[in-house]
Amino acid sequence: MTTSQEELLPDTRRALLHRIALAQAEGRAPSLVAAVVRDGRAVWHGARTSVDGHAPDENVQYRIGSITKTFTAVLVLRLRDEGVLDLGDPLEKHLPGTGAGEATIADLLAHTSGLAAESPAPWWERTPGTLRPELADVLGKQPFVHPIGRRFHYSNPGYTTLGALVEKLRGAAWEDVLRREVLEPLGLNRTSAQPQAPHAGGWAVHPWADVMLPEPTEDLGRMAPAGQLWSTTGDLARFAVFLAKGDDRVLSAETVREMRTPAAAVEAADVASGYAYCLGMEMSHRDGRTLVGHSGSLPGFLACLRLSEEDDVAAVVLANCTSGPLLAEVAADLVSIVAEAEPRIPEAWRPVAEVDAPALELAGQWFWGTHAFALRLTAGEGVSLGPLSGNGRRSRFRSNRDGTWTGLEGYYAGELLQAVRRPDGTVDHLDLGSFVFTRQPYDETASVPGGVDPEGWRGIR
After folding, report:
1. Cβ atoms of residues 281 and 301 within 8 Å
2. What's this model's pTM, rounded to 2 decimal places?
3. Running DSSP on this structure, what letter comes out for residue 321?
4. By the 8 A CB rule, do 420 and 431 touch?
5. What is the pLDDT of residues 395-425, one digit of tens each?
């Protein structure tokens, strides 16, 4: 028997509506729209507005600000996956003459390039992009404010530079490359660099009075890869599915998992708050839940996308005001409401499709010194190694097809796991990055570095 998860329960839908209604009212937003994704599809859309009888739906465009950076990162990682570039390459190798060429592509993606947070005055978000026609105008005469690679420092010019890199290597405008390589394959037909009706207008709400002022809507020009896009909750819901699961027409599941992995050293305050930056995505921790995605803002608009991989739930929230509702908190709450009211029903257990005989021989208990570990062979996961109890170093491993495995995460990411055999073919021990794992604690029959005391285990004499 299977259980359908397509529809949310009435109490869950009401809780979601209550949360966005509270956000719109207390945040004094002209309008606020939201969507929730579960099991790879949008399962709820909601809207609140100050205009009677005219609530926006999932097809109304809002400006999404820096969520644009995630789209730009996807384009860069496509180039990496095609072998056109390496993330460790200095920018100068592919885009010479910028004055910022010592920074690597990975530094630019993770905001560790040392570049300034903003372009030189005037305020780029409220002025035409024609004032900054060239990349040199965006970077300025002194582009660096920190040493390269030393610290996380959010940089809009950094992502502008990545957009210029995409244009150079693809031989086409950033907007055209994005539409051809990402938007069209994923069916994001309501995402565009310029507003397309129906779209919301951007407003500034007076902090001390219930009055509003229209915000200018500028074409950001060269700065577009950092924050130009307009989108809808419907399109961003589909984009959230892609960021969780990948799509081989755009990026593999393995590459989007890499995008969701922290890549930047964080400040002490960020450590305390549970914030980290990945490759074009943000990570935060809230109420024991890990959320990834991105926030965005431009004058007149706020945006946020958050997803919980463990719960398979994502939320998108958009508003048309310069400040007001804290959309990161709203999105996190929407995820929590669904995840806690209707916990994810796990997939039915199934045995592996094909037995990996060498891995099966190694399954079971192993000891690193006196620490007990278990090596498991799991359907869909491959080989994993972790402590039998409590916290400790653990990782999944990818088979290299030669009897060895490479770590995928944590302390053992990139490290080689292999079985060391005796002349008769039996397993002596496991070697993991030179660490020895034996079937018994300090097994005297195994090749333990430093040897094992010949008198064996003993009590107090």
Report:
1. no
2. 0.90
3. B
4. yes
5. 999 989 888 999 988 899 999 999 999 999 9
